[in-house]
């Protein structure tokens, strides 16, 4: 499994998780391979709640730590993700999204975008969210996730889906970067250094406010410096699709079909979902007037696109929630129905 | 920080004296606390301290110990933390027999949030959520730890401070999961609601009912109803989590090399 191998190469030495389809390949891979590595610990935890808190403990003890799950399990982890953010502990969380809400089903979905990018847990905090679209990107972004988590001392989420878990594509693992993480944050022992004090409970409102602003300043730096996106066929485009992950793969297929019919369609693909590449998307609206958002949900990223483009462009939408994965042909048909060369996007969202 | 007559400070004093006598160094020791009156103990500590969330202290501690077995990891929890909201982590930490020392202040209710019922509130007793008496039964925390697989289980009360310190020392020295349950007065809530408003009344209750385990075991089942056992209840030497884990790693790395 690409994510597991990339994580171990990136120096991940602690993994805890609880099985759930469609991501069991990750814990199974970690169980087999992390246990072959000196100092590598794999624990099949008693629940997702346990897993995320074990990861937090191992992170405090200095491990590059990871957990993975799929939608219902990620809901259970939110308590711990909020605590990781509060205590400024680095960790990587993988969500292979499936159809929801509730237990839902085990088919690929993108219904957890809000949960991932809007906090998910309680309190004023943010999580860096990376949305890979290829196996290669799963490898690269997993490695980058550990670097970002350490750099900003914050949880980072890989937001993918079951479809991507099953992909068979060749991958080249890049050279991992050496870890840069000050020892002052680690409960290390062996008589070394001063003892550390980590707590999420801050009873004085003024102290808590200050802590919130400290976190916020960090999030503002991340928002300024860490956005990533891909442009595909946007140079000559009259219409631009906005999609991420599996949705973007389908969109690329649709774009090829549409271009064969002479319609110049491009793709804007956010790679960081938080921070969302708002300015980069808005830049496109300087020369293109029509955008169509495509998601495997009822329309969640759509809100971020609106924040970027409202008043600058016409926005259309196509969504298939619940684990339905439409073909590129379906999406191409939708585009020809929703977009008219003279009128632009017909149904403006 | 605690009310007068509260038992938590006695436990904390016993724990710190045990650290001292065992020569534990601050930087090598991690005290993980949950949330509650008990959880607030970390305000007094110079060791590493990780003040976690309600019920999750053992999961954090498991992550710490599994990754760095050289640290002494001690977990302070209330009865709410340990066996009510955190019951699942509790039985699994004991089952893994991970080398942690859990000290549980059992004051039979949720002290911090105003004296509501917990999983250890005895049937029939009064709390702020059982105004007519508790219709549910209570957990025996020590029995739970024993069947779940803990290597060491003991119970004491603040009435017996010296013994408490000795038991904590034994628990710290024991490899594997150890539990020291401390029956503890909460005069402000549990005591007040159950006709033991004066701090010493709950202590008297412990003194009269707590019997050294050897004596307790000789009582008839009927007599046992009105008493509880104190002292060391379980002492075994099953291999702990990290030992077993390293055995598996040897097998795994041999496979990889071979
Ligand atoms: C998730 C969550 N639920 C509820 C609470 C509120 N809460 C704080 S302490 C506590 C109970 C504490 O009881 P116990 O663990 O027995 O500790 P004590 O105060 O009695 O020492 C509760 C319910 C919380 N902090 N977090
Ligand atoms: S409320 Fe009870 S447990 Fe909390 S400090 Fe007061 S006496 Fe102790
Ligand atoms: Mg309590």
Helices and strands in order, then pairings?
The complex is a heterodimer of chains A (about 350) and B (about 260).
Chain A: H1 2-9, E1 12-17, H2 25-33, E2 41-44, H3 48-60, E3 64-69, H4 71-87, E4 91-97, H5 113-117, E5 128-130, H6 135-152, E6 155-161, H7 162-165, E7 197-199, H8 205-225, E8 229-232, E9 239-242, H9 245-260, E10 265-270, E11 272-274, H10 278-284, E12 290-295, H11 301-309, E13 314-319, H12 328-338, E14 339-340, E15 344-345
Parallel strand pairs in A: 1-2, 1-3, 3-4, 4-6, 5-6, 9-10, 9-12, 12-13
Antiparallel strand pairs in A: 5-11, 8-10, 14-15
Helix pairs in contact in A: 1-2, 1-6, 3-4, 9-12, 10-11
Chain B: H1 8-21, E1 29-33, E2 48-51, H2 57-67, E3 72-78, H3 79-85, H4 87-96, E4 101-106, E5 109-110, E6 116-117, H5 141-148, E7 152-156, H6 161-173, E8 178-183, H7 187-193, H8 199-209, E9 210-212, H9 213-218, H10 221-224, E10 228-235, H11 241-257
Parallel strand pairs in B: 1-2, 1-3, 3-4, 4-8, 7-8, 9-10
Antiparallel strand pairs in B: 5-6, 7-10
Helix pairs in contact in B: 1-6, 3-4, 4-5
Walk me through what this model shows:
The complex is a heterodimer of chains A (349) and B (258). Helix content of chain A is 40%, strand content 20%. By secondary structure, chain A is α/β, with parallel strands linked by helices. Chain A folds into two domains: 224 residues, 3-Layer(aba) Sandwich (Rossmann fold); 117 residues, Rossmann fold (3-Layer(aba) Sandwich), CATH 3.40.50.920. In chain A, strands 2-1-3-4-6-5-11 form a seven-stranded mixed sheet, sandwiched between helices. In chain A, helix 9 links the parallel strand 9 and strand 10. In chain A, helix 10 packs across helix 11. Chain A is globular and about 75 Å long. Chain A starts with a helix and ends with a strand. The mean pLDDT of chain A is 96. Chain B is an alpha/beta fold and 258 residues long. Chain B has a single domain, classed as Rossmann fold (3-Layer(aba) Sandwich), CATH 3.40.50. Chain B is 42% helix and 19% strand. Chain B contains eleven helices and ten strands. In chain B, helix 1 crosses helix 6. The radius of gyration of chain B is 18 Å and the shape is globular. The model of chain B has no long low-confidence stretch (mean pLDDT 96). The complex binds thiamine diphosphate, iron/sulfur cluster (SF4) and magnesium ion. The site of thiamine diphosphate (TPP) has 16 residues of chain B, from helix 3.
């Amino acid at each position: 499994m690409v994510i597991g191998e990339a994580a171990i190469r990136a120096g991940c030495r602690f993994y805890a998780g609880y099985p759930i389809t469609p991501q069991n390949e990750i814990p199974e891979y970690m169980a087999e391979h992390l246990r072959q590595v000196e100092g590598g610990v794999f624990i099949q935890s008693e629940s997702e709640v346990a897993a995320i808190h074990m990861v937090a403990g191992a992170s405090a003890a200095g491990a590059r730590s990871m957990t993975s799950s799929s939608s219902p399990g990620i809901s259970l982890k939110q308590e711990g993700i909020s605590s990781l953010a509060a205590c400024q502990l680095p960790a990587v969380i993988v969500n292979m999204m499936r159809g929801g809400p509730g237990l839902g089903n085990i088919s690929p979905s993108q219904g957890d975008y809000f949960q991932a990018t809007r906090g998910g847990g309680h309190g004023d905090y943010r999580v860096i969210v990376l949305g890979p679209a290829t196996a290669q990107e799963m490898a690269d972004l997993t490695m980058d996730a550990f670097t970002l988590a350490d750099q900003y001392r914050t949880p980072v989420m890989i937001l993918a889906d079951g479809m991507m878990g099953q992909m068979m594509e060749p991958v080249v693992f890049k050279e991992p970067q050496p870890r840069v993480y000050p020892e002052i944050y680690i409960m290390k022992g062996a008589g070394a250094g001063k003892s550390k004090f980590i707590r999420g409970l801050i009873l004085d409102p003024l102290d808590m406010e200050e802590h919130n602003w400290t976190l916020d300043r960090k999030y503002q730096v991340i928002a300024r410096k860490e956005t990533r996106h891909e442009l595909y066929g946007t140079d000559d485009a009259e219409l631009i699709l906005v999609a991420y992950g599996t949705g973007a793969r389908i969109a690329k297929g649709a774009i090829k079909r549409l271009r064969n019919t002479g319609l110049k369609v491009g793709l804007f693909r956010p790679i960081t979902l938080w921070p969302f590449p708002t300015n980069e998307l808005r830049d496109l609206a300087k020369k293109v007037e029509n955008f169509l958002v495509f998601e495997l949900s009822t329309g969640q990223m759509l809100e971020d696109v609106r924040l970027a483009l409202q008043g600058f462009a016409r926005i259309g939408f196509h969504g298939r929630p619940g684990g339905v994965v439409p073909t590129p042909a379906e999406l191409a048909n939708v585009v020809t129905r929703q977009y008219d060369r003279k009128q632009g996007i017909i149904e403006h969202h | 920080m605690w009310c007068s007559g509260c038992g938590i400070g006695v436990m904390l004093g016993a724990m710190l004296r045990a650290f001292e006598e065992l020569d534990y160094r601050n930087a090598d020791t991690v005290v993980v606390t949950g949330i509650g009156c008990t959880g607030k103990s970390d305000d007094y500590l110079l060791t590493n301290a990780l003040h976690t969330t309600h019920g999750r202290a053992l999961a954090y501690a498991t992550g710490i110990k599994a990754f760095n077995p050289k640290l002494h990891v001690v977990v302070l929890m209330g009865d709410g933390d340990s066996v009510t909201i955190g019951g699942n982590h509790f039985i699994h930490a004991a089952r893994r027999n991970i080398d942690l020392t859990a000290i549980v202040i059992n004051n039979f209710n949720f002290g911090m949030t105003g004296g509501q019922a917990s999983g250890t509130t005895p049937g029939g007793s009064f709390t702020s959520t059982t105004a007519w008496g508790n219709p549910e039964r209570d957990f025996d925390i020590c029995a739970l730890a024993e069947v779940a697989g803990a290597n060491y289980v003991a119970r004491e009360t603040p009435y017996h401070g010296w013994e408490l310190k000795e038991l904590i020392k034994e628990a710290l020295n024991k490899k594997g999961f150890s539990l020291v349950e401390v029956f503890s007065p909460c005069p402000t809530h549990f005591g007040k609601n159950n006709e033991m408003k004066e701090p010493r009344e709950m202590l008297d209750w412990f003194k009269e009912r707590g019997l050294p385990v050897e004596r307790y075991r000789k009582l008839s089942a009927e007599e046992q109803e009105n008493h509880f056992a104190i002292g060391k209840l379980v002492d075994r030497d099953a291999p702990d989590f990290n030992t077993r884990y390293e055995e598996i790693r040897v097998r795994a790395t041999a496979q990889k090399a071979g």
